[in-house]
Amino acid sequence: MATGSTEKIPFEKLYQDGEKLGPLMPWNIGGPQPAVRAICEDGGFRGHVLDLGCGLGDNALYLASQGHQVSAVDISEVAVECGRKKARDYELTVDFQVADAFSLTNSGTRYDVILDSAFFHTVPEDEIPRYTELLRALCEEGAELHLFTFSKELTPDYPGPRRISEAELRDAFGAQWDIKVIEATRYHSSLPPEAVAQMVDPRTFEVDAPTDNLSEQMVDEAGNVVSWIWHMHAVLRPQENRSESPV
């Protein structure tokens, strides 16, 4: 397996031992994120789509079920094998790959749309330039990016990955990408509020979850927490229109 920045979070251990270690995979909701489904229904995916940090593959499988050509990558062999099994069971075609995302920089494959559903906020702050370089290497001219990330403004008390502000998103992407929108959207979890209050930090496996405001969290019809996060939709500018500093 390729190595790289995302191995700082032990995703393989989370997928292998998640039930024993506690509620560590709130993103495993057993289907696509409703926000991803809504974008697809609005025609937001086209051509060859890459699901970056695909986890158990539910978003990728949904997009494939809607007729899209989909590749999906995750560092966890356990998660990818789960996605492959689902693809076989549902008779869907998804090119699942086991790799650290950063190893794809020199792969030579180019995509029309990148989906980042809660992967960006696992990237250390000092490696954001490396992440944006990865995207440029993976994208066709005019490619689109749909990025979902926890927000400093919207989810200050939710445990887990670091928060990203709207200003940080514009600083990171504004020089190379035409940012169409940064908007609040809902991110569904598999956990009720009491489980979120007991969540451990997946980077340290230590309890690190403030509880004061969790009673105010939105929940879905199953009683699981729904959080407000950022959705950024951006289009890669032509090479001649890119700059070295945010615009």
Structure, explained:
- The protein is of the alpha/beta class and 247 residues long.
- It is globular.
- Residues 1-7, 18-23 and 202-209 have low confidence and may be disordered.
- Helix 3 links the parallel strand 1 (48-52) and strand 2.
- Strands 1, 2, 3, 4, 5, 6, 9 and 10 form an 8-stranded mixed β-sheet that branches.
- It has 7 helices and 10 strands.
Chart the SSEs and their pairings.
Elements lengths: L10 H11 L12 H8 L6 E5 L5 H8 L3 E6 L2 H14 L4 E4 L12 E7 L10 H11 E11 L16 H8 L3 E12 L4 H4 L3 E2 L4 E2 L10 E2 L5 E12 L11
Parallel strand pairs: 1-2, 1-4, 2-3, 4-5
Antiparallel strand pairs: 5-10, 6-10, 7-8, 9-10
Q: How large is the count of helical segments?
A: 7
Structural class assignment? alpha/beta
Instruction: Give the overall average pLDDT.
Output: 83
Helical content stands at 25-40%
Radius of gyration from CA coordinates: 17 Å
Number of strands: 10
What letter string, H or E per element, gives the SSE order? HHEHEHEEHEHEHEEEE
Quote the distance from N terminus to C terminus: 37 Å
Tell me the β content.
25-35%
Low-confidence stretches: 1-7, 18-23, 202-209
- Major beta sheet, specifics? 8 strands, mixed
Global outline:
globular
